[in-house]
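Input.
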Amino acid sequence: MAQKNGFEGAKVWFIPDAYLPSSGKGDNYEGHEAVCVLNTTTQEANLNFSFYFTDCEPLENVIVKVGAKRSKHIRLDHPEELGGVTLPQDVPYGIKLTSDTNVIVQYSRLDVAQPNYTLMTTIPYFED
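Output.
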């Protein structure tokens, strides 16, 4: 992780492999994606999401706030967590997340379309 001015994290993050399936309600879990953000700084983080697609214009300037010294799990299948923006399902896309303060980002996908659930999680690429 980059460390600047005593804070860990970065201001620019990339998630090239995002995908929100339309099907998938398991016995106890709903399939979904989440971008988890940890803000260890003393100021609120203003996140700006851009979603990039193969054959259509990007969805840009989707703003989400994370309080100072807080963690936030942003469900990408819940429009209310993205300022009312609904992401298309069954379409691959990429994400660019910028922040006005250093944050740490993790991306997770829970796929329950098959009897054996799959959980994929990763720390995205960040720009120093």
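The first strand starts at residue 3 and ends at 4.
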